[in-house]
Here is the input.
Amino acid sequence: MKNRKGLYLLLGILLIAFFGASYSIANYINENNIVIEASSKLPYLKFTVKSTNNEKNAALQTSVTTNMASVAKDTKFVFNIKYKDKEVRNMVLEKHFNESTVLNNKTQKELDEFFKTQGYIVDSITNAHVVFVNYSDRYSYSANRYFLGVYNDLVTIYKTDENGDITAHKVFNSNVYSEDGSQQKYDFGAKESGELQYIRIDDLKEKDGLVGDLIKGRKYINDSNGSQDAEVDQEYEKGEFKTPEKAFDYARGLLKS
Here is the structure.
């Protein structure tokens, strides 16, 4: 009997302490005009002081996050493109971002936003690896070909290797004239001279699905029956070229205002 009374007494004390703490927290939140918000799909609580006027929320903001994966100092990046027929890697982007710190500390949501204009989204993320994927609705580009795409939000000419993976690029420069007024010979590997006139994706006027074609890969008529066969003179139809000069001429005609 004595043990039972002691247990009841303990439960009573705990209940009083619980309700007292709840009242104190509620009273503090009310008196300090604080809002509790839930943010994102991950466990995330945000305590924000309401603004008494129409200004933005005051500086006090406490965040509690649990197990949120983000880019670490030594995180490695992989960029895949999934075409209708195969999956290839964009080694140009892999080299660039594996040697850069611009993505450090970014979360999945921030990474998706960062690569929105390049067509990539996060497929998987850990502190050690981030795998991006670009889902294309065309068949893959042939081996050892040049085609138009996007690099750092700029129109670029990419090159595939013998496996169809992307291994080189040159940002498209719409100014084809040297400082002395003569027309330059387009060279994929040479350093350009004169005033560089790059074309940003955001500056393009959408027409006939142009922006989508640059980001996801230009579809061609043979996609309709699943055939990848094409005659040599149909390079323009497929949007892939045997020489960078042809790719450059195609870009100049396609992107001119």
Notes: Helices lie at 2-31, 91-98, 108-114, 210-216, 235-238, 244-255.
